[in-house]
């Protein structure tokens, strides 16, 4: 069996560790997670790695390099969204395990140590927080998240304890730059570009920063048959104009994605004019400045549309509501690592969003 076939076999094997239903459902610190970790542990052992679980529930397989050298981190997340795909996350673990197995089989010596990480949580589906394992390594865990509870009232700290983790030790997992060489993850592309380009693999050059804005249009409800069309304060129509304006602007912008993915209407019935429309506007860009400027423009546009369409104190209505910005800054990936990967994969650089592809 070739390496590719073995990767596929392993991806199918671990996809069975699922809570049932369509696709893969594997939340952190559950029976399914436990079963998946047993399988991953066996792959790590087969690759000659020494395994352990850290305080944040990350399964780690280590290969020791020569003394005094830094550690290179590879891996991905083992958890899934509800009814998720079988390649998301586990692909990065399976491929990393096979790469380490190949190195061991070929008796290839490396001038550094390698740690293969299978993170417990990335998706943030079970608990209203995400990335506990990676944040712990980066030293950015907010202790408050450990008190967050899932739908059954079980806190993240308790779930971690039953899994052999230690909530009190999570803050001590931080890796220093001086001991860490870098981090590399293979991940399924969650978009159509590589397939459309008939390209098997690409190198990511950066990770987009994200912000979520919560926008509320406030108008006035009324009967669908008695309020004349010219005298309406219809918030859904205002929102529709806003969404279209945002889409048009985002299409013209460079390297920016704008998505209105959630909409709440009141009173949400067939024969009444909507008096309230709440929506989310998520913005992503590899440049924080571009993203921030777009958000400012969107807010101004929302105000303008609101003042024309809904008539009700548009500035204060939108100013007070367009405030909930959740922001995560962008990251650029190490250029030297990009260059080395490009040579290893025989890839030529391409501009965003493909970044790179086979010649
Ligand atoms: Zn993923």
Structural shape: elongated
Overall number of domains? 2
- Rg calculated over all Cα atoms: 24 Å
Unreliable segments of 5+ consecutive residues: 312-326, 350-359
| Record field, number of beta strands | 14
Structure classification: alpha+beta
Assign the CATH architecture of the largest domain.
Answer: 3-Layer(aba) Sandwich
What tags apply to this protein structure?
18% strand, Aminopeptidase, binds zinc ion, 359 residues, 2 domains, single chain, elongated, 14 strands, 5-stranded mixed sheet, disordered C terminus, alpha+beta, Alpha-Beta Plaits
What does this 3D model show about the protein?
Strands 1-2-4-3-5 form a five-stranded mixed sheet, with helices on both faces. It contains ten helices and 14 strands. With 359 residues, the protein is of the alpha+beta class. The chain has helices spanning 3-15, 31-46, 90-105, 132-138, 156-162, 193-196, 235-252, 288-309, 314-321, 335-345; strands spanning 50-53, 59-63, 71-77, 113-119, 180-184, 206-207, 209-218, 257-259, 263-266, 276-285, 326-328, 331-332, 348-349, 356-357. The protein starts with a helix and ends with a strand. It folds into two domains: 3-188, Aminopeptidase, CATH 3.40.630; 206-328, 2-Layer Sandwich (Alpha-Beta Plaits). Residues 312-326 and 350-359 have low confidence and may be disordered. Bound molecules: zinc ion. The site of zinc ion (ZN) has 5 residues, from loops.
């Amino acid at each position: 069996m070739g390496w590719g076939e073995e990767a596929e076999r392993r991806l199918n094997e671990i996809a069975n560790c699922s809570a049932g239903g369509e696709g893969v459902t594997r939340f952190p610190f559950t029976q399914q997670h436990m079963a998946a970790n047993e399988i991953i542990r066996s792959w790590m052992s087969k690759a000659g790695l020494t395994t352990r679980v850290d305080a944040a529930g990350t399964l780690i397989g280590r290969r020791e390099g020569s003394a005094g050298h830094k550690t290179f981190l590879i891996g991905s997340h083992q958890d899934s969204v509800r009814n998720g795909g079988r390649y998301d996350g586990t692909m990065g673990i399976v491929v990393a395990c096979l790469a380490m197995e190949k190195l061991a089989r070929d008796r290839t010596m490396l001038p550094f140590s390698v740690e293969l990480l299978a993170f417990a949580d990335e998706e943030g589906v079970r608990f209203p927080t995400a990335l506990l394992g990676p944040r712990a390594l980066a030293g950015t865990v907010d202790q408050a998240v450990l008190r967050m509870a899932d739908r059954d009232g079980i806190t993240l700290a308790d779930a971690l304890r039953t899994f052999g983790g230690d909530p009190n030790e999570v803050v001590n997992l931080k890796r220093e730059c001086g001991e860490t060489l870098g981090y590399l993850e293979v991940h399924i592309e969650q978009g159509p570009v590589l397939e459309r380009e008939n390209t098997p693999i690409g190198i990511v050059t950066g990770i987009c920063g994200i912000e979520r804005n919560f926008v509320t249009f406030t108008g006035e409800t009324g009967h669908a048959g008695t309020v004349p069309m010219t005298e309406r304060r219809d918030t859904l129509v205002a929102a529709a104009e806003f969404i279209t304006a945002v889409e048009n602007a985002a299409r013209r912008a460079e390297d920016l994605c704008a998505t209105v993915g959630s909409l709440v209407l009141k009173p949400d019935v067939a024969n009444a004019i909507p008096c309230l429309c709440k929506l989310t506007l998520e913005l992503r860009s590899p440049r924080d400045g571009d993203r921030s400027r777009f958000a400012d423009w969107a807010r101004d546009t929302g105000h303008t549309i609101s003042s024309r369409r809904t008539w009700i104190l548009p500035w204060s209505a939108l100013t007070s509501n367009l405030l909930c910005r959740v922001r995560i800054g962008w990251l650029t990936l190490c250029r030297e690592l990009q260059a080395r990967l490009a040579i290893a994969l025989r890839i030529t650089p391409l501009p965003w969003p493909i970044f790179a592809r086979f010649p």
